[in-house]
Write a structure and sequence with these properties.
single chain; 151 residues; alpha+beta; Beta Polymerase, domain 2; 5-stranded mixed β-sheet; two-stranded antiparallel sheet; 5 helices; globular
C-alpha cells in the first residue's frame, strides 16, 4: 500500500512533539492510519489523534483523564499538542486482543508506527457492534470501498 505523503508531512511535527513527551513506544490508531494509507481523503487537517501506549507510565502527568462511553474500565488521556487533541490509551481490560494486535504488526512510516488496516477495520467493527457509532460505520464503508478498489 502507498503512503499518503501529504498526510505524513502534516502529522510528522505532531508525532515528533509527542515522541518528545512520551517516548517512541506507541502506535497511532483510530482514523489516522486510514488517512496515511489513502483509505480516507486527507483535506489538510484532522480532528484528533488516537495513540495506543505500551506503558501506562508514559502518559504525561498533565493529561486529562476521560472515560470512554462512561465505562470506568476504559480510560483515555487527553493532551493537546499545538492545535491537535491527542487521545492516549493503554491496555483496556477485555481489549487485550486488540491491544496486542495493534502493537504486533504496525505499518512503519518515517520511523513512526501506525496500526495496520486489518486491525483498524476490526477495531471499527467492534466500535459499531458495541456502540453503534455512525462515524465508525462510515469508516467501515470507506475501508470496504478501498479494499474492493485495490483487489
Amino acid at each position: 500500500m502507498d503512503i499518503n505523503k501529504k498526510f505524513l508531512t502534516y502529522i510528522r511535527p505532531y508525532l515528533i512533539k509527542l515522541k518528545e513527551q512520551i517516548g517512541d513506544d506507541f502506535v497511532v490508531f483510530g482514523s489516522a492510519p486510514l488517512y496515511l494509507l489513502g483509505v480516507v481523503e486527507f483535506n489538510g487537517k484532522i480532528n484528533d489523534l488516537d495513540i495506543s501506549l505500551k506503558n501506562k507510565k508514559d502518559i504525561p502527568n498533565k493529561a486529562k483523564v476521560v472515560t470512554f462511553h462512561k465505562n470506568k474500565e476504559q480510560l483515555f488521556y487527553k493532551i493537546v499538542i499545538d492545535d491537535l487533541e491527542v487521545d492516549m490509551t493503554s491496555l483496556w481490560p477485555g481489549c487485550e486482543y486488540f491491544f496486542n494486535k495493534i502493537h504486533s504488526d504496525p505499518v512503519v512510516a518515517d520511523n513512526f508506527k501506525f496500526a495496520n488496516l486489518d486491525i483498524v477495520k476490526e477495531w471499527k467493527e467492534e466500535m459499531v457492534k458495541n456502540y453503534d457509532r455512525k462515524k465508525d460505520k462510515d469508516y467501515l464503508k470507506k475501508i470496504d470501498e478501498f479494499l474492493n478498489k485495490i483487489k
